[in-house]
Design a protein that fits this description.
The complex is a heterodimer of chains A (442) and B (228).
Chain A lengths: L17 H13 L4 E2 L13 E3 L20 E3 L8 E3 L3 E3 L9 H14 L2 E3 L7 H6 L2 E6 L8 H6 L2 E5 L11 E2 L6 H7 L7 E2 L9 H15 L6 E6 L3 H11 L3 E5 L8 E2 H6 L4 H14 L7 E5 L5 H9 L4 E4 L1 H7 L7 H6 L24 H4 L4 H25 L13 E3 L2 H7 L16
Parallel strand pairs in A: 5-15, 6-7, 7-8, 8-11, 11-12, 12-14, 14-15
Antiparallel strand pairs in A: 1-13, 2-16, 3-4, 9-10
Helix pairs in contact in A: 2-14, 6-7, 7-9, 10-14, 11-14
Chain B lengths: L1 E4 L5 H9 L9 E5 L16 E5 L14 E4 L15 E4 L15 E4 L12 E7 L13 E6 L15 E4 L10 E4 L3 H13 L11 E5 L15
Parallel strand pairs in B: 1-2, 2-3, 3-4, 4-5, 5-6, 6-7, 7-8, 8-9
Antiparallel strand pairs in B: 9-11, 10-11
The chains are: A alpha/beta (442), B mainly beta (228).
């Protein structure tokens, strides 16, 4: 009787997994790094790793729907003559016309306005659609300065100086040739069809000392009316926020690595920056150390998905949050109803991230007029407003359960963490213990 | 002429007054005394007036200027006439770095030298420098014209798009994708008009060389990776 070795089960490498192998083959075939939209997709410590304790014997809750729980927030109280008053502490993050279609920008403006919040321009200037449909519009001041002009600066309700963003701290914008249509080319003063790479540094200032003078100039041009935000990616949040305050910011926006981009190298998105959860406490600490917490407002963005995420960010010390990717999903991005179209692009609903190619079947991340027509800005705006209102109700539900009559009264003591990493990053106790990893006290 | 002495009057008051001017104003002549290097002087002006500044200015003088003529009788700090839309800015002395950055229109005339990154990311402005310009000038320059009567420093026109550069003197080195180009008759005409607009006389266009984009980096190609 002959003996045969039993076959072993084929085993794939954890190091060289299917995605990694496909990326090596793709790089070898094309000779270009992978570019995509969105934020970090890897598993990261996030708000899901935190839980609210809720009221019990030591605190009493507020009655849902009857006892008021306020959500209003005022941004820009430090220097601006005309601070921004929002009904809800959830804003729409900066996204460019160019990356998004005109209809998508209009829908964002409509939705934000219905919900009583602000929307934000992006790396492509201000469009009439967006200004016309946004009751409160934040105008981004970016390194490229595409479309920048003093009239739009004065038309804005606030100015956001973009130093970095979470998807690519230290990187500039990208807009590939497929999306540089005639209108986009004109707005950006570029030849049609080129692969546009925005610069990563501002052309006329370097460092916080210069930025202080740049902000003086912007305030002088706008007669000190507009709140000035400084947006930073989640790199060194303690020092970045401290320096932003020093430079004269009214508001600081901290964007973690789950924050999306229209187009950036995959290697940048996944390997540069810190998770949003890790950024909040150092940012708040910087404000507290300077005696500026609640005087300079903090907006946190990067992976905010629901009212619970918002509540957790506020409990850790943020004044407001901003959403980008979630807002696009609310408009209709990555909808399973479009699965056939996604299949034609060799992807699937929920995974589509080739926003730079301009072939978005949802008509959002495109400049193709036929595709863009698929998005009804009125209907999509209503969807966004609905979503923002649901987020707000969720936020209020949690705040009431914790016994707070304003969402800004949420505090770290309302939270515990269910992982060691989250406990260390959020500086709240591990559930069932009094232990905050990295803190002296038990 | 209305004179404002910045030793006695806050900068805010000067700029506020200038912002209140409208087309057709009778207050067309303004004089600023004792600027002493203050930043953001005469920024965001949008009226056909002349602002004469008697002395050196700091950062961003005449930033985002529209329509106005701003004359600096002295040297100017970084970012002079940044993002200018129209009008004219004249610096009688030298200009620090980023002069005319992202400028979209109008004329910036620097009678002395300009430092590094002159005309960075320019988007339609005309810049004329009677002296020399520093390194990395016209970096990512998108459109508009930069005329230099003296020499240019290292890496002129790095990653340039469609701006036109005319240099009379030497160029220490050219940046990525920037090349010397033929001076065709239309370029002589264009340069002649620019010199005339800037009031530069006694200089022949044949003394200049023209530089611009090779357009090889407009679309990504792995074989150009060494240029990045």
């Amino acid at each position: 009787m002959s003996y045969q070795n039993p076959p072993t089960t084929p085993r794939k490498s954890s190091t060289f997994d299917d995605y990694t192998l496909s990326e090596i083959r793709r790089a070898a075939q094309t000779g270009i790094y992978d570019i995509r939209g969105g934020g970090a997709k890897r598993k990261l410590p996030h708000f899901d790793d935190l839980l609210f304790l809720g009221a019990s014997m030591s605190r009493y809750p507020l009655e849902g729907y009857r006892e008021k729980c306020s959500t209003a927030v005022t941004l820009g109280t430090r220097y601006a003559k005309k601070p921004i008053e929002l009904k809800i502490p959830i804003t729409i993050a900066g996204m460019s016309f160019g990356a998004l279609s005109g209809n998508a920008k209009e829908a964002l403006g409509r939705g934000a306005t219905l919900a009583g919040t602000s929307t934000t321009t992006g790396d492509g200037g201000m469009t009439p659609e967006e200004r016309g449909h946004s009751q409160m519009l934040v105008y981004q001041y970016l390194p490229s300065r595409y479309g920048m002009n003093p009239d739009d600066l004065r038309r804005a309700d606030a100015i956001e100086v973009v130093v970095g963003q979470g998807a690519k701290p230290g990187g500039g914008g990208m807009l590939l040739g497929q999306k540089i249509s005639d209108r986009v080319a004109e707005m950006r003063t570029l030849p049609k069809g080129i692969d546009q790479r925005s610069s990563c540094r501002h052309p006329d200032w370097t460092g916080p000392d210069d930025l202080e003078i740049k902000i003086l100039e912007l305030r002088e041009i706008t007669d000190w009316e507009k709140p000035i935000y400084i947006k930073v990616g989640g790199a060194r949040p303690y020092y970045d926020v401290a320096l932003a305050v020093k430079a004269g910011a009214d508001v600081v926006v901290v964007d973690g690595m789950q924050g999306g981009t229209a187009a950036t190298q995959e290697v940048f998105i996944e390997h540069v920056g810190q998770p949003t959860l890790a950024c909040i406490r150092p940012a708040v600490q910087a404000l507290q150390d300077l005696g500026m917490h609640r005087k300079v407002q903090l907006i946190v963005s990067g992976g905010i998905r629901n009212g619970a995420d918002c509540a957790k960010a506020l409990a850790l010390g943020a004044d407001a949050v901003a959403i980008g990717t979630a807002a696009l999903v609310a408009l209709g991005d990555n909808d399973p109803a479009l699965e056939k179209d996604y299949g034609k692009l060799h992807t699937t609903a929920g995974a589509y991230d080739d926003w730079h190619e301009g072939r978005d079947p949802a008509g959002i991340t495109t400049q193709d007029p036929d595709l863009a027509k698929r998005l009804d800005p009125v209907r999509a705006g209503r969807r966004l407003a609905n979503y923002l209102k649901v987020m707000t109700l969720e936020l209020q539900t949690i705040a009431r359960a914790a016994g707070h009559n304003h969402v800004h009264n949420l505090e770290p003591e309302d939270l515990c963490a269910i992982t060691l990493e989250a406990a260390a990053m959020a500086r709240v106790p591990l559930a069932g213990t009094g232990w905050i990893p990295g803190q002296d006290k038990l | 002429m209305r004179a404002i002495d910045l030793e006695k009057t806050p900068l805010r008051e000067l700029n506020e007054n200038l912002h209140q001017l409208k087309d057709g104003t009778n207050e067309t002549e303004w004089e600023v005394l004792n600027p002493r290097g203050q930043h953001a002087i005469a920024v965001g002006v949008d009226a056909p007036v002349t602002v004469t500044i008697r002395g050196p200015v700091g950062y961003y003088c005449a930033g985002m200027n529209k329509q106005a003529t701003v004359v600096v009788h002295g040297s100017s700090g970084p970012g002079t006439a940044e993002n200018m839309m129209s009008g004219k800015v004249i610096v009688k002395g030298d200009a620090s770095q980023y002069a005319g950055a992202t400028g979209r229109g109008g004329l910036l005339l620097i009678e002395g030298n300009a430092s590094s990154r002159c005309g960075i990311s320019m988007k339609g402005i005309d810049i004329v420098v009677k002296g020399n310009i520093g390194h990395m000038s016209a970096f990512m320059a998108q459109t508009g014209n930069l005329v230099v009567l003296g020499d240019a420093g290292d890496a002129l026109g790095d990653s340039i798009y469609e701006a036109k550069l005319f240099v009379r003197g030497s160029v220490k080195s050219l940046g990525a994708d920037c090349i010397e180009k033929e001076m065709r008759p239309e370029h002589h005409d264009q340069l002649s008009a620019l010199l005339k607009k800037a009031g530069v006389n006694g200089v022949k266009t044949s003394e200049f060389k023209r530089y611009g984009s090779a357009r090889k980096l407009y679309n990504f190609n792995i074989d150009n990776a060494d240029a990045y």
